[in-house]
Amino acid sequence: MGIKERVTARVVDLFSHSERPLQNTEKYEGDPGLFGPGSISWEVLGDVSSFVGGIRALLIQAAHPEVAAGVADHSSYREDPLGRLSRTAYYVTSMTYGAMPETEEAISMVNYAHQRVSGISERGRAYSASSPQYSAWVHNTLTNSFLEAFQVFKRPVTETEADQFVAEQALIGERMGADPLPQTAHELKEWVNSHPDLADSKALREAIEFLKNPPLSRTESIGYRILQRAAATTIEPELRMLLGLKSSKLNLYIGKTLIRGLRWALKYSPSWKAALVRSKADFDSKLFRSDV
C-alpha cells in the first residue's frame, strides 16, 4: 500500500465510527438535493480544508456557555470522541450532498437527539438544544468556519461566492429551526464575533482542553494538533482570547503545508462525487478519491 493509500485509510477511519452517509444515494437519481452541482457549498465542503473548518467551529462553539453546557452535560465526546466526530460528519455530509430524502432523515436524527438535551448552565440560564437561538449559534459558527477555512487553506473567494455560500447554508439552518440566520458573509462574521452571550465557563475550559488533546493515536495526534493550532490562528483575536488560544504564523504555515499534503493524498470528497453522479453532472473523476 502506497503513502496515498495509507494516509487515505487512516483519515477515512477517523470518520468511520457511525453509519456512513449517502450509502443508498444512487436510488434518488436526478435529485440534486438542497444545493446541486452549481453550488459553492459542494466545492467548499468537498475540500480537505473542511477538516480545519470543523475543528474551528468546535472551538468557537465552546464560547457560548449554554451551548457548551449542553455538550458537557449530554454529549459522549469524552468517552466516544470519534463516534461524535463521525456523527457530526454524517450530518454535514448528508445535508450538503444528500438527496432530499437523505437530508430529511439527517434532520430527523438530529431533532430526535436534541429532544433530550436541556438543562441549566453554569450561569443559571436554561438551555435547550432545540432552541432557535442555540441552534443558530451552532449552525452559524459551522458556516462561518467552513468558509473561513476554505479561504485561508484553499483559495480566496469573491464577495458574491461568500454570500452565496452563506445563503445556501442558511437553507440547512432553516430546516433545523435556527434563528437568526445572517444572509451575507459580512453579517455572519459580525454576528459570530460580536455575539453578546459569549463568556468564560467551566464547560468552555473543559471543551478547549479536550479539543487541544483528544485521545488519538500518536500519528493521528500529530496531524490533529497541527490542524487544531492552525484553526485557532484563524479565529478573531478577541474571541481567541476568550477561548484561551494562541495565534502563530508558524502554526498557520505548518497547517497550510499539511493541508496541501492531505489534498494531494485525499483529493476531493467521494460524497461530492456520489452527488455529482446522482445528479447526472459532468465531472473529472480523477479529481476525486474512492472510498477505502
Task: Report on the architecture of this protein.
The chain has 292 residues and is mainly alpha-helical. It has one domain. It is 63% helix and 2% strand. The protein has 14 helices and two strands. It has a two-stranded antiparallel ribbon with strand order 1-2. Helix 1 packs across helix 13, helix 3 packs antiparallel against helix 7 and helix 5 packs antiparallel against helix 6.
State the helical fraction.
55-70%
What's the N-to-C terminus distance? 11 Å
Oligomer: single chain
Structural class: mainly alpha
> Rg, please?
18 Å
> What is the domain tally?
1
Q: Give the rounded overall mean pLDDT.
A: 91
Provide the low-confidence segments as ranges: none
Beta-sheet strand percentage? under 5%
Count of separate DSSP helical elements: 14
SSE order in H/E notation? HHHHHHEEHHHHHHHH
Q: Mind describing the biggest β-sheet?
A: 2 strands, antiparallel
Number of strands: 2
The order of strands across the largest sheet is 1-2
Principal-axes geometry comes out as: globular
What are the SSEs and their pairings?
Blueprint: H1 3-14, H2 40-46, H3 49-61, H4 65-74, H5 81-97, H6 100-114, E1 118-120, E2 126-128, H7 132-153, H8 159-175, H9 185-193, H10 202-212, H11 218-233, H12 237-243, H13 249-266, H14 270-278
Antiparallel strand pairs: 1-2
Helix pairs in contact: 1-13, 3-7, 3-11, 4-10, 5-6, 7-8, 7-9, 11-13
